[in-house]
Amino acid sequence: MSFLLDTHVWLWIAGEPDRMSPSVLARLENPARALLVSVASTWEIVIKHQLGKLRLPEPPDRYMETRLERYQTSALPIELHHVLQLSHLPLHHRDPFDRILVAQAQVERAVLVTTDRNLAAYDVEILWADELPATDLHEPPGAYDAARPD
After folding, report:
1. Could you report the per-residue pLDDT of 46-93, keeping only the tens digit for each?
2. Could you give the CA distance from residue 132 to residue 20 in angstroms, rounded to a whole number?
3. Cβ atoms < 10 Å from Cβ of 16
């Protein structure tokens, strides 16, 4: 199973894991999973760092490279088919970074890990990073179609 981490979730894993639900953190630490961080999240981190809205212990390039390796996380590039998927998304959310994450999660059939409740309006599987075990998964209609590979 692949998990696409929202920007704030990635920052929590890399610097403040105690902000995460213990059950969610345990799921993400499972060696059978794939953790993904979108290039869009890296872009957002660089922008916020440059604007002084995000403090990091080192420059963004080193921060991202070392943490991707440390947490066995893969960078997910933004591909043409991800961008074209945006044309199928209703405008429930206007943040372009969040919208591309939704599109990437849909195309890649990844679970989006977030705390942003606005994203529940989209047809995407969500793992709530801040919830307790019984309520931490949002499944869109048809999420567990038998034909869908895991």
Report:
1. 999 999 999 999 999 999 999 999 999 999 999 999 999 999 999 988
2. 10
3. 10
The H-or-E segment that residue 111 falls in is strand 111-114
Local structure of residue 114 (DSSP, 8 states): E
Fold of 2-138: Rossmann fold (3.40.50)
Given a contact cutoff of 8 angstroms between Cβ atoms, the answer to whether 24 and 3 are in contact is no
- pTM of the model as a whole: 0.85
Q: Which long-range contacts (CB under 8 A, 24 or more apart) does 32-35 make?
A: 32/1, 33/1, 33/2, 33/3, 34/1, 34/2, 34/3, 34/74, 35/2, 35/3, 35/5, 35/71, 35/72, 35/73, 35/74
Bridging pattern class, strands 137-138 and 126-128: antiparallel
Q: How far apart are CA 92 and CA 55, in angstroms?
A: 30
